[in-house]
Amino acid sequence: MSETSSAPTESRRPQRTSPLTFYRQVVAELRKVVWPTRPQLINYFFVVLVFVVVMMGIIAGLDYGFGKLVFWLFS
């Protein structure tokens, strides 16, 4: 009894696309994107800005507090 494996190898590489096909696919995907309106973009900008400022305040406060604590412990 001879065992010959006729199963396809699993190490096949997917076929590469040409740069032109890639560009066309990118353009087609970008056309599907729902772009925000100007008021939405301004709103998102301020939401992110406020969030970043709040996070900076929290981190700065923790840094200051831990710094004071370390100086108090080691002085």
UniProtKB/TrEMBL annotation:
GO molecular function: protein transmembrane transporter activity
Topological category with respect to the lipid bilayer: Single-pass membrane protein
Entry keyword Iron-sulfur: no
Example of a GO cellular component annotation carried by this entry: plasma membrane
InterPro entries on file: SecE_bac, SecE_sf, Translocase_SecE/Sec61-g
One of the GO BP terms on file: protein secretion
Signal peptide interval: none
Keywords assigned: Cell membrane, Membrane, Protein transport, Translocation, Transmembrane, Transmembrane helix, Transport
Keyword Transmembrane helix among UniProt keywords: yes
Chief location bin: membrane
PROSITE patterns referenced in this protein's UniProt entry, alphabetically: SECE_SEC61G
Subcellular location: Cell membrane; Membrane
Entry's transmembrane regions: 41-62
PANTHER family for the chain: PROTEIN TRANSLOCASE SUBUNIT SECE
Role played: Essential subunit of the Sec protein translocation channel SecYEG. Clamps together the 2 halves of SecY. May contact the channel plug during translocation.
Subunit structure: Component of the Sec protein translocase complex. Heterotrimer consisting of SecY, SecE and SecG subunits. The heterotrimers can form oligomers, although 1 heterotrimer is thought to be able to translocate proteins. Interacts with the ribosome. Interacts with SecDF, and other proteins may be involved. Interacts with SecA.
Family per record: Belongs to the SecE/SEC61-gamma family.
Protein's name in the database: Protein translocase subunit SecE
Organism listed in the record: Mumia flava
Gene designation per UniProt: secE
